[in-house]
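User: Before I run my own analysis I want an independent prediction to cross-check against. Here's the chain; please return only the structure tokens and, at the end, one sentence I can use as a sanity check.
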Amino acid sequence: MSGCTNSPSGAIEHNTTIYYLDNKFHEDIPEEYIFKTWGYRIADPFGREHTYRSKVDIPHQRKETKWCTIHRQHEEIKAHFDPKGNGYIYWISRHKKSL
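Assistant: Structure tokens:
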């Protein structure tokens, strides 16, 4: 008996991630779609992404609480200026409202 696949599960397996948005296929989600859906995007030092409806503009050593549209919780954002990098590093933690 011959089958139409060589995979161990017997099903056709796809090993790629393709997004179908606005009647087109994309390798990655386009930045304008992320902004329109979730808002402004920043990444913390651990590489986790967070998005907020308003732009994050916090001075050095200050904190601000914002609602993260990805994690759907309040987060406390603390800004640190990075002289070796190209701007600010944002340390993000869960706000006590969300605990």
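Sanity check: The chain has a mean pLDDT of 80.
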